[in-house]
Amino acid sequence: MTDLEIAQSVTPKHIRDIAAQLDIPESQLEYYGTDKAKLPLSLIDPKKVKASYLVLVTAITPTPAGEGKTTTSIGLGDGLNRLGKKALTVIREPSLGPVFGIKGGAAGGGWSQVIPMVDINLHFTGDFNAIEKANNLLAALIDNNLHSKAGNLGIDPRTVLWKRCMDMNDRGLRNIISGLGGKAGGLPRETGFNITAASEIMAILCLSENFEDLKTRIGNIYIGDTWEGKPVFARDLNAQGAMAVLLKDAVKPNLVQTLEGNPALIHGGPFANIAQGTNSVMATKMGLSLADYVVTEAGFGADLGAEKFLNIKCRQAGLSPKAIVLVATIRALKYHGGKPLDQLKTEDTQALKAGMPNLERHIYSLKSFGLPIVVSLNRFESDTEAELQVLADHCRKLHVPVAISDGWAKGGEGCTDLAREVVQAAESCQGRFHPTYSLEDSIRTKMEKICRTIYGAKHVLLSNKASAQLKRFESLGFSDLPVCMAKTQKSLSDDEKKLGRPEHFDINIREFEIAAGAGFVIPIAGNILRMPGLPGKPASENIDIDADGQIRGLF
């Protein structure tokens, strides 16, 4: 069966029964139908947050289709529950861009899924819509201030950084001219659209501790400069109150369930190649308040998602995982060993061995954080016993525990071995993670430490434009912010063609962006897009709905 057929074959429990498993009274539920609900932030218990086990799921450098972090996270959560642990999976909400683009849905796969799968992959509870509207309200307020004489802040339109957003891959909106149509149309200027998952509002929502923190962060959004060169922030437009109103429900985490009837929280969805790539601080802390084990994930490979999860999210929120699960697949390692994408289903132990340095680099990088690591081999149907044995033997040589994750085929039952390894690792963890850099370091030093320690790069090189922008941001007092590196997810380097474990390479920073509201500086390496495009044959071509309302082709 397809993922959608599997999801539709299971009758979900009523969401009040799922809440009861977490001792949440029905009066605390904000129903969205019978199978999903929003939860109030009052359920967060700071004492319980410190006492529970947080497990981070990350991955090696992925193939274009991804390596199954979400499937592993859901299967691991089900596996922990099968071992008698009170476990909860906390993950991101899918973006419509990938759903209709190349990757398809992001609610897990096979028998390790969260449901209702269709709702989660489409409009869900409207969080992305609210983020989009809050983002675009600020854009409208900026253009109105440029156009209006009353209350005009004297903003230099050439310096305006804020763009509109939409949750869709639409390359035609990356760069546009707005304000056409004469005087009534406003002031013509260059601007564009970001995809909603790359909006700073998404990053802010996912890093906010509570509603007041959300409002403060929105007010801190850096818009641009006046004609005199003074910085302008969203609070100067009195935008934060109205924008927060649009987000009043979006701040609440969403409760759903796995196919096995175990609880899961889904909230927020920033991309990891341009933002912090993990679900909200509020959802993570709520999960830790409600369960003894929380399994969460960070987007793309460990060089992007895990690094940002730890250096940005955990540092700010006072969190520290007790174990890191590194997802590896036979197909990805063969890909990094030089095997073409269309031949990855063919057995090839030599290509597999040639791709092992990518796994080794990620293990080496993750060890710098000082946390226990477990390698999870996400099994695919095409994997052979010989290939599985090669990978398992290699992990043992590296003195890293490894377990096969068969959640796609068997659900929680296929992840109990992995769950046992994770429990052993988590319960043996005594300390907190070690950040890659200090906040007192200069922005340049922070970048260099990430690029050398995590990527294995030699030097960090700045373009003239990047150097000028860096000086400007430092002059505005942003030097003490963490760094959110933006680079390709397809390679440890900034060149997507350099597979495996590249060495002696430089990271080239072409420009900087500032997310003052979210609280980080963004160095951009290579051609990273905040508005992706659709592939030649988008996944949307396979999606349809019949006269009875049954959807097909969503996977």
Helix and strand layout, with pairings?
Elements: H1 3-8, H2 15-21, E1 30-31, E2 37-38, H3 46-51, E3 53-59, H4 69-82, E4 87-91, H5 96-100, E5 108-109, E6 112-115, H6 117-121, H7 127-147, E7 164-166, E8 176-178, E9 189-191, E10 193-195, H8 200-207, H9 211-219, E11 222-225, E12 231-233, H10 240-246, E13 254-258, E14 263-266, H11 281-290, E15 293-297, H12 302-317, E16 323-328, H13 330-336, H14 349-367, E17 373-378, H15 385-397, E18 402-405, H16 407-410, H17 416-428, H18 443-455, E19 459-462, H19 464-475, E20 506-515, E21 520-525, E22 544-545, E23 551-552
Parallel strand pairs: 3-15, 3-16, 4-14, 4-15, 7-10, 16-17, 17-18, 19-20
Antiparallel strand pairs: 1-2, 2-13, 5-6, 6-13, 8-9, 11-12, 13-14, 20-21, 22-23
Portion in strands:
15-25%
Number of self-contained structural domains: 3
Extended strand count? 23
Please state the structural category. Answer: alpha/beta
* Global Rg: 23 Å
For the residues shown, what is the average pLDDT?
Answer: 94
Main sheet specs: 12 strands, mixed
Could you say what the CATH topology of the largest domain is called?
A: Rossmann fold
Shape: globular
> N- to C-terminal separation?
11 Å
Q: How many helices?
A: 19
CATH structural architecture of the largest domain: 3-Layer(aba) Sandwich
Residues in helices, as a percent range = 25-40%
Tell me the name of the CATH homologous superfamily of the largest domain: P-loop containing nucleotide triphosphate hydrolases
CATH class of the largest domain: Alpha Beta
